[in-house]
Give the backbone structure.
Amino acid sequence: MNIKEVTSHLEAWAPLAYQESYDNAGLIVGDPGASVTGILITLDITEAVVDEAVRKNCNLIVAHHPIVFRGLKKLTGRNYVERVVIKAIKNDVALYAAHTNLDNIAGGVSFKIAEKLGLANVQILAPKSDVLMKLVTFVPTVQGNPAFRGATQAVLDALYEAGVGQIGKYDRCSFRAEGTGTFRGNAESNPTLGEAGEDEEAHENRIEVIFQAHRQKTVLAALRKAHPYEEVAYYLTTLVNENQEVGSGAVGDLPEALSEAEFLAYLKNRMNLSVIRHTALRGQPVRRVAVCGGAGGFLLNDAVGARADVFVTADYKYHEFFDADGRIIITDIGHYESEVFTKELIQQYLLEKFITFAVILSDIDTNPVLYYL
């Protein structure tokens, strides 16, 4: 098993296309073709984590946070980022990050928080738009020629295999309508129906399917391979529809309502917290909870719009707490604390995919923030 095979599985789960523009997810250091001896999972990559990987014979570190966000112009060891990269290269340890792309998928970072809190009916809090496309194509039917028996289903099966037709909890979704197509091939053509240079008509099925935009090349390759025509007619349309499987944060319901004090105690216990910063209590029961790993303040209005009683996130600044304005309780549990269980999320996924080598959780606490209690 080489590094490329591992990262391909990670990117099928959390596509790099879903990372934010400022991010640097993916393979940061290392040879994709190198064989994997073991994988170390961490939230952050530090020099101590690289040392740990070497001790444990892990030549691939998978982290949530990228060690490199901006371009490195020199590698002289003048700061911790350069030192980590140098140490990784010297020890042939590859560095990979699944960051905002893992934040932005159903089942990702915020869903792990929801799981820790025992939330039910969990959904993405702020679904993304403009990440879906619609494909329309035309396939000849048996009514026009017995040779095309099953052609429509064969094309659809190939497209489904390429990832089209997924809508929420349903897959293999499509629409079809019958009609008549017309065409004429030139002298260099080799038409599947009729003769070159002649006007032709064909009884066809119009097929419509949706897919995630980043799959476009794969989908079109599958279409061309499966379609019986020499030249395949198709349309692609970018959709503004929200994708319920891609977006920021999550929202769900507690099994039963808790008082605000009970919820804060519950939150502290479930997330293993030392301290919680929060806005004024409202004297109302807590049942619906919105969550976002890391700095989630940008989702406050989405949390309010989802009728959440509490918003669990991190990295709130002083003046931003005022934005609660009595509409919701903001709880800031700390950046590290909100995302540390992401390590378990990544490990669980990789263990399901690879059982022949070690996938180990780092023992090192990389939280740069300490509390004097």
Summary: The chain has three domains: 3-101+341-361, 109-125+248-333, 131-239. The longest helix spans residues 342-353. The first strand starts at residue 26 and ends at 29.
